[in-house]
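Onboarding guide, step 5: your first structure request.
Type a short instruction followed by the sequence, for example:

Predict the 3D structure of this protein.
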Amino acid sequence: MNFRKNIKPAAGQSFIVFIMLLLIACAQVVSPTGGDKDTASPKISKSTPENFSTGFKGNSLTLTFDEYVQLKDLNSQLIISPPLSKKPSVKLKGKSLILQFNEDLLDSTTYSFNFGKSIVDLNEGNPLDSNLFVFSTGYFLDSLSVSGIVKNASDAKPEKDVAVMLYAYIEDSIYYKDTTVYYRDSIPYKEQPLYISRTKEDGTYALNNIKAGRYVQFALKDLNNNLLYDQPGELISFSDSLLILDTANRIVNMNLFEEKSKKQFIKKAYAEQYGKFTFEFNLPVDRVSITPLNHSFKKAWFLEQTSLNRDTISYWLTDIEGMDSLALIVNDYKTIQDTFEIAIGKKETNSKGIKKGRASQSKPLLLDATFNAGRGVPLDLNNNLTINFSHPIASYDFSKVILSRGDDTLTFKTRVLDTISREFQIMHSWQEDSLYKLFIPSGTFIDIFNLSNDTIINEFKFSTAESYGTIMLTLTVPKKQHQFIIELSKDKQSALRTQVVKHNETVEFLFLNPGAYNLKITYDENNNGKWDTGDYMDKRQPEKVVYYTSAITVRPNWDMDLEWIVEGELERGVNQGPSEKDLK
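The system replies with structure tokens like these:
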């Protein structure tokens, strides 16, 4: 027999259940609505020692804040000047930050602690309102300062997060420290600075609370954060003269540069497509040779294409039928650089790999042609029509090519623009605002892979003279023994036009497309026609670069008259004190 029991709660029990449900509903968490965002920065309410105090004899620094804080990237943000040889131990305790020094502080020395943005509050990450803390172990605070701006020497752009450092000047060229022999010129390689600061976003810096004395100054783009000039790729700047601080503060602007590497090596090797591979070298090459290891060739088996500055070489293989891969030794003037294996791939595919690694394969291999003008892209009046093929051309017949304007067939001349027959130029007495048509029948061009072109029809026209603008630059330069390089560019990128001048003159830039342009002048001190970097050990500064004050807007059918007076030397700290020679 089955029984079912019906249970009904009593009235008192129902009331208790109702109250419990009500309390649960009231306890649900709801996101707060409204309220102002916390924008207040934490403040130091107490410190031991006090900020800007003197006579400090302790071994720790304690900062107490008006709210709880957290540390954010303290190791890279905190700058202690003079630097400590051992990093202090760091501890957060309640609302206090404690820095325990792990070495004795120097006597009669002013220490500064710049925390950057490393101390922030817990809620919104607002940084400390005053990030500089200073005290002295002597009877007074040192108060001299050096400030300025650090720019990149090659493009004059401000450099951020650069270490600006002062070292005590040493009279002797050779000195001893802890029984070790040091050379004065080795200071940035071996020694920690006495004072250090870092540049801001705009490249400016300030070294404060410096003791009176004689110093040498450096700036360093420090890649491994050890305050030593010891890594390839690090940028450096050095002052030409001593920095003498006595009663006046100084302004020293510096130009940062990367020294030219003295070691040759292959930076990059890659296969762009079937039958072509490229090597990028660290330095311009002298005489490069490639020696196959796994094949023997009975005739010339490649074409060589070298970049203008001779630091990149591409090879087009002309005898690779039936080959899957090619192993090579690459030499630069009898020096073995490296060994590579190239995955050849198949002719009907593009090859995308170079061993160390294998080639991948993609779309069918075709002989393509591109032009510097076509529909919607007019040809500049000061140019001729150029054809650029995707592969070197082995044979061609220009007698099949037809150039026409309307119903008229035109005569033209041609020339090859490179050493491997990839780029050709069509020359004619062009007329502005006229429509031209170039007809290239199929099979006119045959490349080194025995591929031929399809039929090509290219219609193009020339711009009118009224669509261009002109810059007429009246230039005044300092009287020097060297020449000056004037460069016109867009967005301070690669030069579009270049002209060399030796004295005051008017420079014309004709047939410019409308837009904004920049002007740059380089002090070509060795008259080699290009900008040269510096060398610290040779005490050679990078060649000076100056930009025109603002961008220049070129309008159609308009002559822009400009006057540019380039005066004196670029500030680089060279006039802040006597040279070492003057002191002897």
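Each response can be followed by summary notes, for example: The chain has five domains: 44-136, 144-256, 266-343, 369-463, 467-565.
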